[in-house]
Automatic annotation (TrEMBL):
Keywords: Lipid biosynthesis, Lipid metabolism, NADP, Oxidoreductase, Steroid biosynthesis
Pathway where this protein functions: Steroid biosynthesis; zymosterol biosynthesis; zymosterol from lanosterol: step 5/6
Protein's UniProt name: 3beta-hydroxysteroid 3-dehydrogenase
Gene Ontology BP, a term: ergosterol biosynthetic process
Family: Belongs to the short-chain dehydrogenases/reductases (SDR) family. ERG27 subfamily.
E.C. number(s) listed in UniProt: 1.1.1.270
EC class of the enzyme, as a word: oxidoreductase
Any single Pfam family the record assigns to this protein: adh_short
One GO term describing the cellular component: endoplasmic reticulum membrane
Keyword Transcription regulation: no
Gene (name only): KNAG0I01040
GO molecular function: 3-beta-hydroxysteroid 3-dehydrogenase (NADP+) activity
Amino acid sequence: MSEKVAVILGANRLFRDLKYRDTYIVSFSLLVNSYLGLKIAYRLLENQDPSTNVKLVVTSRTEKRCNEAIEIIKRDVGKIERSGKLSFDSLLLDLTDMESVLKAANTLNDRYEEINYFFVNAALGACDGINWFAAIWEVMTDPMKSVTDPSYRIQNVGVISKDQMGYIFQANVFGSYYLIQKILNPLSKGKAVVVWISSLCSTPQYLSLDDIELINSTRPYDGSKRLIDLLHLATYKKLKEMGIYQYVVQPGIFISLSFSQQMSWISYYSMLFLFRLARRFGSYWHTIDGYKAANSAAYVTTFRDRDFERQDLKYGSATYNDGVEYVKSQEIDPLGRDKVYRYIEGKREEWDIKLQNT
Ligand SMILES: NC(=O)c1ccc[n+]([C@@H]2O[C@H](COP(=O)([O-])OP(=O)(O)OC[C@H]3O[C@@H](n4cnc5c(N)ncnc54)[C@H](OP(=O)(O)O)[C@@H]3O)[C@@H](O)[C@H]2O)c1
């Protein structure tokens, strides 16, 4: 019997790195499990016909974390009633290493004739530190901004990867783009849904078209998400001609240790309190819980008539002030789309040559 193959880039969580993680595990297990890739896997399975056989391919930079992700998913999916077989595969992938990206692409091409779902969830660099004075000031003077688009998060500037590219550009955008370009065959055969995880904060102000690799940017993470939006606009039509349906989604704002790693437990729970307050007072983007955050990524895989649904929108996970989830779409400003596409395609050609003897 045939099976559906879903590849999820970066489906694990970071809690083990925290000194105070045990507190989370014991008292707040619902929050511990909130990391997006795991929840995307869970929701994808929930949406499948229960008799469908599914293969989940999870990636990480280490085998250990791949295995951990698989164990967590296995444990969680026990809650879903399904008769279809669920199997797993793990794939080592470091998006900041182009040889690793090519190797992962070759492995996917060798192992799978068809890939049905592909989620670009892996990302780096949301927060490398916190300017506490600015944080306190912003919480007091503009509390909604402080929990929606905070300006006190420090992001490292000018970091270059070992492949001599902007580090965040390569990790969050180019590595995944290159990988997708190398597996078009199985994606096309599987009539795949490709989902890029963007962000609420991917506004044009965070991307200078003179610095597409985000080397001089003070907000490279947000700039990388803007690049994702533009790259999606530039490529979805071409992919559709191959039978591949690409979407860009954003998860709202949810509890993630990618930025809470920098916090003490007091500031962590204060942030959580402010998130809940923001939602109560009308901020629909405060999804808070990873399951609700994964709503938009799962939603775009369920379109019955894909030709009818718009692909030029960004689908966002949202909640009403009582926490009930829904999906809210947003227009994407296309300014700079063609320049970004030309630049990234140029990089792809450059790396095709560099990697041809690999
Ligand atoms: N938290 C929020 O409120 C929020 C808001 C908007 C958008 N998002 C987006 O939602 C997605 C998931 O966020 P999250 O907070 O759940 O992520 P997370 O817990 O920080 O996990 C990041 C994942 O990316 C992988 N990764 C990091 N660097 C990598 C690299 N160089 N090569 C390959 N994989 C790499 C990690 O895998 P390994 O470490 O195992 O290799 C990990 O699985 C991200 O795209 C994020 O930008 C989050």
